[in-house]
Amino acid sequence: xxxxxxxxxxxxxxxxxxxxxxxxxxxxxxxxxxxxxxxxxxxxxxxxxxxxxxxxxxxxxxxxxxxxxxxxxxxxxxxxxxxxxxxxxxxxxxxxxxxxxxxxxxxxxxxxxxxxxxxxxxxxxxxxxxxxxxxxx
Length: 137
Fold this sequence. Notes:
Elements: E1 2-4, H1 7-15, E2 20-22, E3 37-42, H2 57-62, H3 76-84, E4 89-98, H4 103-113, E5 116-123, E6 129-136
Parallel strand pairs: 1-2, 3-4
Antiparallel strand pairs: 4-6, 5-6
Helix pairs in contact: 3-4
């Protein structure tokens, strides 16, 4: 199941067989998912506002900048996912985030405060950070 603020994205997901809801992050998630979810995967806007100009030119020609803009450090929505996801995850549940740069380090305090005990990152073939896996204690 998925959520998105963009009704077009939700319609596209539905057309592809995904149960999707229009809403802001976890606000649209049915209450029945609270405390029993095994995995939360979040691909939210994480490009720092000051770095949007570095995206390939055609990217912003076809999509709105809000689909990429993660705020000043790129972690505004990432931090919200870290803070809000434990309400839905079961103990031992996993949070997977797409991110980059130094964002994993910037999120470590929020991850610890939110009850995530194990945090691992992974990089692409060029050695650039691409993701984070955190397990709820």
